[in-house]
From TrEMBL:
Protein name: 40S ribosomal protein S8
Keyword S-adenosyl-L-methionine applies: no
GO biological process: maturation of SSU-rRNA from tricistronic rRNA transcript (SSU-rRNA, 5.8S rRNA, LSU-rRNA); translation
GO cellular component terms attached to this protein's record: cytoplasm; cytosolic small ribosomal subunit; nucleolus; ribosome
Annotated organism of origin: Trypanosoma brucei brucei (strain 927/4 GUTat10.1)
Residue ranges, annotated region (Disordered): 1-22, 125-145
């Protein structure tokens, strides 16, 4: 069977040998790490103890990311792995693990923000930037295009709703800048090698400032 993680072959606390009275179990097998890479989705099921199944994420490129202050979550594409406290090697190889910092496509969040508050954060882009983004989108035809929302065509009832929401709302400048750029920093909170999912949360407040400083140091 190979390497196992069972107690059968280990000594007792007293130092005596344990008598092996049963066969090895498949669930006790010492398995290889998943080392989930950034790429088209590939997940394999692995039978675990009790007939349960784990989902071993081998390659993932999308996930559900929560925007904490807005109590909203959107499915977004993972663009890049930019920071990992454990090792720079995991950044170089674009390995997705829990608590690694990734760059996420901001389009779904920008669309939700426009629908919820009536503010189009992508409107201030220059012509050159929009041309570049359209060229990139045409190249990446495999991914479905995000729908566009025209704020000006909204009904008067919806506009009144937006006005009320804006009164009690304030967005962080660093986060607004990221939304305009189309790239958001997020932290993966799920375990891709165990669940086959790369879900996480957007970085905000002090946490965002901390990682922006870290990334700025790396550039220098």
């Amino acid at each position: 069977m190979g390497i196992v993680r069972s107690r059968l072959h280990k000594r007792k606390i007293t130092g005596g040998k344990t008598k092996i009275h049963r066969k090895r179990m498949k669930a006790e097998l010492g398995r290889l790490p998943a080392n989930t890479k950034l790429g088209p989705r590939r997940v394999s099921p692995v039978r675990a103890r009790g007939g349960n199944f784990k989902l071993r994420g081998l390659r993932l490129d999308t996930g559900n990311f929560a925007w904490g202050t807005e109590a909203s979550a959107q499915r977004a594409r993972i663009l890049d792995v930019v920071y990992n406290a454990t090792s720079n090697e995991l950044v170089r190889t674009k390995t997705l693990v829990k608590n690694c910092i990734v760059v996420v496509d901001a389009a779904p969040f920008r669309l939700w923000y426009a629908k919820h508050y009536g503010i189009d954060l992508g409107a201030s882009k220059s012509k050159k930037a929009t041309q570049k983004s359209t060229e990139k989108k045409s190249k990446k035809s495999a991914h479905a295009a995000v729908e566009k929302y025209d704020v000006k065509k909204a009904s008067s009832k919806l506009k009144r709703k937006w006005e009320y929401r804006r009164k009690h709302h304030k967005i962080e400048k660093a986060l607004a800048d990221q939304l305009r750029e189309g790239r958001l920093l997020a932290r993966i909170t799920s375990r891709p090698g165990q669940t086959g999912r790369a879900d996480g949360a957007l970085l905000e407040g002090a946490e965002l400032q901390f990682y922006l400083k870290k990334l700025d140091k790396k550039k220098r």
